[in-house]
Amino acid sequence: MKTRSSFFYGFTLLVFGCLGYYLLQAGSVLESAKNINITVNEHLDTENFFNRFHHPLALLFLQIIVVCGSARFVGYLFTRKLKQPSVMGEIVAGILLGPSLLGYYFPETMGFLFPPSSLPTLGTLSQIGLVLFMFIIGMELDLSVLKNKAHSAIIISHASIIFPFFLGMILAYYFYTDYAPKDVGFLSFSLFMGIAMSITAFPVLARILQERNLTRTPLGAMVLTCAAADDITAWILLAIIVTISKAGNLNTALFTIGLSFAYILTMIYLVAPFLKRLGSIYISRENLTRTAVALILMILFLSSLTTEVIGIHALFGAFLAGVIMPAEGNLKKLIAEKIEDLAVILFLPIFFVITGLRTKVNLLNDSHLWLVFGLVLLVAVVGKFIGSAFAARVAGSNWEDSLSIGALMNTRGLMELVVLNIGYDLGILSPEIFAVFVLMALVTTLSTGPLLDGIQKFFARTTTTPFSEKPSDSKLRVLVAFAQEKMGKSLVRFAFSLSGNQKKNLELIALHISPNDSLSNEEIRKYRDASFEAIRQTGVNLGIQVQTEYRITDNVTYEIVNFAKIKHSDILLIGAAKPLFSRSYTGGKIKGILNYCPATVGVLIDNGLETIERVAILYKGEKDPILGFAQKLTSLKGMKSNKIKVENLIQPETDLNPYPIALNQITGYSLILIDLNVWEELGFEKMDLLPTSFLLVRFLTT
């Protein structure tokens, strides 16, 4: 049958190829009748090949590749090396691709990548990305948190706006003559200087809290509440300021404000109930229909269009559309899954590049402008940090929490760039002031982490806390760190077996770490509960209590090692996974854990492990620590175990078995326990397909 199909395929190609050749020859006769002269260039036209990059579509694809690649790479460096949020690295990448670095040292390259004719297209894409992003930010705001801590939060939030706003207006008084653009009134300039000083970056702040596991603490709850109130107040103020700046007279401003209130009331009392009814349909559904997605996107863009036409900027409409999305059901989660990755990975880096192309750090060559930058930075820190900390102290927080709140509220980041770009587009901020404020936003945000560390260290020295020593009881303390549910269940069952199925001698903690930096606070709560549902059920089936801990971080290795230290774990059990560009089961993150973890580490390579019934222990000698490690496991009732000496496994390599291992001796076992050093010596890593599941054990004594 296969031969007949191949013959038919070849015959078809031959017949139609011949017919096509005959048709082309006949067509050439028609050309001669029309006296057409066709010149054929026999040389390789490389110049025309490179000119194709100037085609608008090809250039756009090239720009997206360069922008997204640079953003992810610099974001990765900031996360891993500098312990900063990845979004800060993406912002820096955008600035580096602009005239501050690429254009300064390689102007031809920048001119090739970002010719002026391509900037309107990039600018439009960046605005679409910002609309989607502000919609997501609006959805992430949990207005219910304002009810519990409304009084203290509003005091701190409004103090953190009023104080820097007033200081910004004072700066505007001194900067107006020299740095305000022509035809810009003092009112517009001073109001924008004030609001630029007052912004707090809610998404960056929430990310910092997640990475430091402060979200569920009283401090984290208070800061998130303050930031939510701050965001709402600041965006309302910004809408009013944009209205005043665009309006030519008082009557126009009042008319715009009236339209804005009518729009807000329409969104709250007409659109929000409709969305609530839509949300009730998706309380238990796992996906959205295309009609529902289209409706929500139409509401989003209609809201943005309305605010743009009214004169208070499209971003305010996107933000409010997100705020009124119903909290009940899965609607927020489902729509965020549809658009968040596209907005954050593709569109936001383009916005950062647009910002970078506008940021000309070389304009600050004049020492006087660096003094201006220093003054702006000082006023920004004093206004936001000191203002928030003092207000928190007055509201009843202790000094450590008050200063921590001040440091966190001083985070400006991405939201500051949004405000600055609005001011730049309206012609209110000059290029010099724009560059100064962009640098201020970077410095204040990058300093948040070190400031928090410094505050914690200072108060740690002034307060005496008892040193946590390892308990002297005989319990086996096992930490199970997992990413996938199936692996977590396997590790919990194995940990129970290691204890000899003795419940009272086992203290088991399951640690689930998510590197996902796009989860909202509501999603974190739901995801945390869902992550451990199967693990807890496994514990119930075994008759043991499994303690659970959920963390979000980009530095998985540090988090696991540090947690094992704090909990004085005897054994750490983790699942193996090959890195993308490596064949090693013990490379990547696992290598760092093996190098730094102060406990015995077991790495499970799950090759279809269902039950732990037949176990083989590979050992070198009678004093091999692997024997002591598996002692209680092998003594279990019903457990079929076998000890295999390593020297009995070694055999010459053959064509049928190109490995120096007698595979027939280890086939048929559900799990093989082996010392990590022996695993490496025997060369199991070189196998394309392992015969069964393995547990690699790294002992502290080896």
From TrEMBL:
Annotated keywords: Ion transport, Membrane, Transmembrane, Transmembrane helix, Transport
GO-annotated molecular function: antiporter activity
One GO term describing the cellular component: membrane
Major location (coarse): membrane
Organism: Leptospira bouyouniensis
Membrane topology: Multi-pass membrane protein
Name of the protein in its database record: Potassium transporter Kef
GTP-binding among keywords: no
Transmembrane regions: 7-24, 57-75, 87-106, 118-141, 153-176, 188-209, 221-244, 250-275, 339-357, 369-391, 434-452
Cation/H+ exchanger transmembrane domain mapped to chain residues: 72-452
PROSITE patterns linked to this entry: PROKAR_LIPOPROTEIN
InterPro entries: Cation/H_exchanger_TM, CPA2_transporter, Na+/solute_symporter_sf
GO biological process: proton transmembrane transport
UniProt KW Membrane keyword: yes
